[in-house]
Write a structure and sequence with these properties.
Blueprint: H1 3-26, H2 32-39, E1 44-45, E2 47-52, E3 59-64, E4 68-71, E5 76-82, H3 88-93, E6 96-101, H4 107-115, E7 126-127, E8 133-134, E9 140-152, E10 155-167, E11 175-177, E12 180-182
Antiparallel strand pairs: 1-11, 2-3, 2-6, 4-5, 5-10, 6-9, 7-8, 9-10, 11-12
Organism: Paenirhodobacter populi
Family: Belongs to the non-flavoprotein flavin reductase family.
Keywords: Oxidoreductase
C-alpha cells in the first residue's frame, strides 16, 4: 500500500468516526407531533409580542410562549419566532419590539393574535417612544431594542435589550399547558 493510499484510508476512517460521533449526539429521528406533545407538558406563561410591520408603521402582534430571561446586567430577554409564520419577517427585521406578559383574564387577547397579526382593530393601545404598539392592563411589559438574532432550527431566536418595563403586581398570570390556557390555583401548604 502506498503512503497516499494509507493517508486516504486514515482520513476516511477519521471521517467515519466523526460521522458516528455526530449520529450518537443527535440520536434517532424525533417525531414532530410527539415532540410537540412532550414540550406541551411544560407549563408556560403567555406573551403577546408587538412591533411595527417591516418597512412601515402599522402595528403587528403575535402570541408566543417562548419568552425567557437571559441576563440581569445588562437586562436581556429572548423569544423565538417561527420562520413558518407570515409575521416572521416583521419581527426578524424589527429594531424595537414589546413583550406583554398576559394575565389570567386575557385568553381572548392571546387567541386574537394567534390568528391575525393585525388584530389591533377595536383594541386599546398606544405607541411607545420607539413607535412600538403598547397594550396596558398586562401582567408585565418589556420594551426592547433588538440586541441579536440567532437561527435556531425552524425558529429565529430574538434577543432584546430591555429599555423600559412595567409590572402589575395585583394580577395573576395566564398559563399555557397541553395546548390549553389555564390559571394558577393557590394550594395550601
Amino acid at each position: 500500500m502506498s503512503d497516499g493510499a494509507a493517508g486516504d484510508g486514515a482520513r476516511i476512517e477519521q471521517a467515519l468516526e466523526r460521522a458516528e460521533d455526530r449520529a450518537a449526539r443527535t440520536g434517532p429521528a424525533v417525531d414532530p407531533r410527539q415532540f410537540r406533545d412532550a414540550l406541551g407538558r411544560f407549563a408556560t406563561g403567555v406573551t403577546l409580542i408587538t412591533a411595527c410591520e417591516e418597512g412601515g408603521d402599522h402595528p403587528v402582534g403575535i402570541t408566543v410562549n417562548s419568552f425567557a430571561s437571559v441576563s440581569l446586567d445588562p437586562a436581556l430577554v429572548l423569544w423565538s419566532a417561527a420562520r413558518s409564520s407570515l409575521r416572521h419577517r416583521h419581527f426578524s427585521a424589527a429594531r424595537h419590539f414589546a413583550i406583554h406578559v398576559l394575565n389570567e383574564g386575557q385568553a381572548d387577547l392571546a387567541r386574537r393574535f394567534t390568528k391575525d397579526g393585525a388584530a389591533f382593530e377595536g383594541l386599546s393601545w398606544h405607541a411607545g417612544p420607539q413607535g412600538v404598539p403598547l397594550i396596558d392592563g398586562v401582567l408585565a411589559r418589556f420594551e426592547c431594542e433588538t440586541e441579536a438574532r440567532y437561527e435556531g432550527g425552524d425558529h429565529t431566536i430574538i434577543v432584546g435589550k430591555v429599555l423600559r418595563f412595567a409590572i402589575d403586581r395585583a394580577a395573576a398570570p395566564l398559563l399555557f399547558f397541553g395546548g390549553r390556557f389555564g390559571r394558577i390555583e393557590t394550594v395550601q401548604g
